[in-house]
């Protein structure tokens, strides 16, 4: 999980093998602000300090990294 650097109430969480989604949460309201299927287990998430993006690292089955633009992807 990772806190957004420009929206302090926004938290991103990543799912394991059975879930495979990155989810956004508004922690002030408790509401989900979106979910994206990553096609593989989410091992790490990090928000960019310079752009409205986050990077995720993945394990089984694809074993790759991906950059996501917020909020469009």
UniProtKB/TrEMBL annotation:
Q: Which GO terms describe its cellular component?
A: anaphase-promoting complex
Any idea which UniProt keywords this protein has? Cell cycle, Cell division, Mitosis, Repeat, Signal, WD repeat
Which BP terms in the Gene Ontology apply to this protein?
anaphase-promoting complex-dependent catabolic process; cell division; positive regulation of anaphase-promoting complex-dependent catabolic process
Query: From which domain of life does this come?
Result: Eukaryota
Gene Ontology molecular function terms on file? anaphase-promoting complex binding; ubiquitin ligase activator activity
Q: Which positions carry the signal peptide feature in this UniProt record?
A: 1-18
User: Is RNA-binding set as a keyword in this record?
Assistant: no
The protein in question is named Uncharacterized protein
């Amino acid at each position: 999980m990772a806190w957004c650097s420009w929206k302090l109430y926004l938290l991103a969480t990543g799912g394991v093998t059975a879930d495979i989604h990155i989810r956004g949460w508004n922690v002030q309201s408790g509401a989900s602000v979106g979910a994206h299927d990553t096609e593989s287990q989410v091992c790490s998430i990090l928000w960019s300090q310079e752009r409205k993006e986050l990077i995720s690292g993945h394990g089984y089955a694809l074993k790759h990294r991906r950059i996501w633009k917020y909020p469009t992807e």
